[in-house]
Amino acid sequence: MPILKPFLRPRDLCLPLLLALLAAAGCSRGTGESKAAAPAAAPQAKDVGVVTLKTERMPVTTELAGRTVAPVIAQIRPQVGGIVQQRLFTEGSNVKAGQVLYQLDPASFEATAASARAAVRRAETTLATARSVARRNAELVKIDAISQQVNEQTQAAAEQAEADVAVARAAEQTARINLARTRIVAPISGWIELSSVTAGALVTADQATPLTTIQQLDPINVHVTQSSAELLRLKRELASGRLSRGRADEAPIRVLLEDGSVYPHAGRLTFAGVTVDAGTGSVTLRAVVPNPDRMLMPGMYVRAVLEEGVAEDALLVPQQAVTRAPDGSASALVVGPDDKLVKRPVTVGRAVANRWQVLDGLQAGDRVLVEGSQRARAGDLVRASEVTPKAGTGAPAPVNGKGGPGPGPVASASPLVDAKIVR
Fold first, then answer.
1. What is the CATH number of domain 62-71+219-308?
2. Which of 63, 128, 167, 397 is the most buried (most CB within 10 A)?
3. pLDDT at 60 over 80
4. Does pLDDT of 180 surpass 90?
5. CA 133 to CA 354: how far, in whole Å?
6. What backbone torsions phi and psi does residue 264 show, to the nearest 5 degrees?
């Protein structure tokens, strides 16, 4: 009986397994190609805060260091010598013009005045006698009862007696003046300083050391200096039309005290020097400031904020919106029409509170990035919401508490509120 061969051979068993592996590999490759062919996800817009720039009226001011000076100062000195009997004022008080301040011992001056009065009476008696003789001799000479020479002598004697009376009266007036000067009075009204003498002190006429000083304190002057370079810059800006200026009699100033507080009363500029100091290169300015409460005292250091002019169409950008490169160049991120950030080089001028004045690179209507610079870069797609910086801090805050558009900050007419120029 013949031997039967197996129906399946080993190679027949390997073929189906190979086909299965190839099919699995094809499926895996197809799945990878499908994933590669899927479109990439769209970039997500980033939330940022912006400020829309607009032109505004900006007072241009400058801060200048200065000192307060009393407008009228009177140093009290004796005009006659003597012993001080009394001091008749309270130190540090307000005195009136003509008020008696010191009383000197008048005894010797009273005696001199009495002697002068007696001399006047004697001279007047002599004059009366001389006039009587002159009148009689004038009649006698007409009838040749006396010589012409005798008549002329009597007429001259009468004239001499008149002159003696005038001299005696002048001496009497001098004695009265010196007697009156033993009462030292205030020549002006104002606030009086400490006394350098007490009762019993010996004083001399026109001595070098004053007895005391009187100063008028309301109003008070503020003397400041401005460099000639600043004056030239101001003239150039006025000539170019970048600044406009009001009338000279409308130049107000505000005063900053030594502790940084704002003095409550505004002053006005009354004098500007016409000569540059060769040593300092500066010009002296004088302002008059009301001082009803005597808060300002002579010699105090103050800073005067002077309004130089007005920029009618100034463009101001928050300081946190401007960044500077190591070379000093400034730039800002602006949201373009396609809601993408664009980096623009800018030129800034003065610092106005917590904002910069923009001279070039930006224009009204630009949306400048002020919040979100840490998470957005130039070229990024953003979703912008309007914010406004908090006054004085530079930190942005939502407009009207909603983050939506609203009225931006307005430059104040007072240079110390929103438009203080710092140089």
1. 2.40.30.170
2. 63
3. no
4. yes
5. 98
6. -70, -15
Residue 276 sits at the vertex; the CA angle it makes with 271 and 277, to the nearest 5 degrees, is: 105
pLDDT digits (tens, 9 = 90+) for 127-164: 999 999 989 988 888 888 888 898 888 999 999 999 99
The pair of three-digit structure tokens given for residue 126, joined into one six-digit string: 């002599």
What's the token pair of residue 170?
């002048």
With a cut of 50, say whether residue 224 has pLDDT above it.
yes
DSSP string, 27-53: HHHHHHHHHHHSPPPPPPPEEEEEEE-
Summarize pLDDT for 112-126 with one digit per residue, the tens.
999 999 999 999 999
Class of domain 47-60+311-422 (CATH, top level):
mainly beta
H helices within 265-372, ranges in order? none
User: What would the two tokens of residue 408 be?
Assistant: 């931006």
Q: What are the residue boundaries of the structural domains of the chain, listed by start? A: 47-60+311-422, 62-71+219-308, 79-105+182-216, 106-180
Can you give the pTM of this predicted structure? 0.59
Contact call for residues 116 and 174 (beta carbons, < 8 A): yes
Q: Return the CATH class of domain 106-180.
A: mainly alpha
Structure tokens at 86: 């009394």
Report the alpha-carbon distance of residue 192 to residue 101 in Å, rounded. Answer: 10
Query: What span, in angstroms and rounded, lies between the C-alpha atoms of 197 and 192?
Result: 14
User: What is the CB neighbour count within 10 angstroms for residue 368?
Assistant: 22
CATH of domain 79-105+182-216: 2.40.50.100
Query: What whole-number distance in Å separates Cα of residue 341 and Cα of residue 246?
Result: 41
CB-facing half-sphere around the CA of 63: CA atoms within 13 A: 19
